[in-house]
Fold:
Amino acid sequence: MESSRRRQARKDLGFETEEEKAKIEVSLAREEERRQKKELARQKLEGEWSYKFVKGVSTLMDKYFVDAVAGFVVPGVGDFLTSALTIPFLYVSVCKIKSLPLTLAVLYNMMVDCFIGLTPYLGDVLDAFHRSYAKNYRLIVGFVEDDEAVISEVRRGALKSAIMIVVLIVACYFLYQVVKGLYVSIAAMFGGCN
Structure:
């Protein structure tokens, strides 16, 4: 039997008992198994059409400014149509990654993009700088690649995202009403000139 002083000395010097070595080996084996499972899941997700589609939409909408151009060509309607392209991002975050904080972050970016796009003409210019698709793609890639900084950022901002989604829905509704009234007024003004 080993004395307590001797055990303390072994501990202080960093010597491990066989039992401790066995526990460390088991822990390392479990961690390696977890890492391999995570890697297989990542590879599987990267091979799926939804993930590839999200990457393509991100590139098309933000790198080639299709989001801004669609809003400029068909004011208001173009922004709602391009917002529909957020559905694949939501699908990946809800069904594939299964993360509520990530889903809230994706929705928040979509709502900001929608709000910006509803502002006639100025919104289309600002839309070119907001790049919500690239932001959402970065967040999804961060979750897929197990990037602790991205995951931590998204989790910390989950409550803020949820609150801001509600605020932006209300703001979009009122902005839509203002823009609609403006278009009706302009149409009445030009219609009354005949």
